[in-house]
Design brief:
This protein is mostly helical. It is 59% helix and 0% strand. It folds into 2 domains: 82 residues; 34 residues. Helix 3 packs across helix 5.
Length: 149
């Protein structure tokens, strides 16, 4: 490396954002810890779905293209295995297989995001249409008021 390049490299400084400017600083420490709720719900979902964990592992493997063993499923659901959380890229498959969308709700707890089922989505869309109707009615009323002046 030439002397010029070396001097340039020595003068480079990386600026960091102050922690107080991060949106996450508004949250309480540990408020996004979702390991235990996800494990509890996964345990319940596995019991309620009526499938053996072997079948669940085979289906997760088939749907995701990753080899998943029954041992991995057991580790994800075991309360004593804090070092083995459910990988996010398997969450969708587990929801489809078990039919329990509360896994995603537990994973997102504390973020302010909500999961809607297909049935709930219809109600949401109706609400959006009603809000749009109110806005259009207000705009129409304003336009009529301008004409009357």
């Amino acid at each position: 490396m030439s002397n010029r390049k070396q001097r340039l490299a020595e003068r480079r400084v990386q600026f960091t954002l102050p922690l107080s400017s991060l949106p996450s600083q508004k949250l309480q420490a540990g408020s996004l810890r979702t390991l235990e709720p996800v494990q509890d719900i996964l345990n319940c979902a596995l019991k309620v779905c009526g499938l053996s964990r072997d079948v669940v592992a085979e289906e997760v493997s088939r749907l995701t293209g990753h080899d998943v063993s029954v041992h991995q499923i057991n580790h994800w659901a075991a309360p004593s295995k804090e070092d083995r959380p459910v990988p996010l890229h398997f969450l969708a498959a587990l929801i489809v297989i078990t039919g329990d969308h509360s896994l995603a709700q537990a994973a997102l707890a504390g973020t302010g995001l909500h999961i809607l089922t297909p049935d709930e989505t219809v109600y949401y869309e109706i609400g959006v249409m009603e809000a749009e109707k109110k806005e259009q009615a207000a705009a129409r009323k304003e336009a009529w008021d301008k004409l009357k002046r």
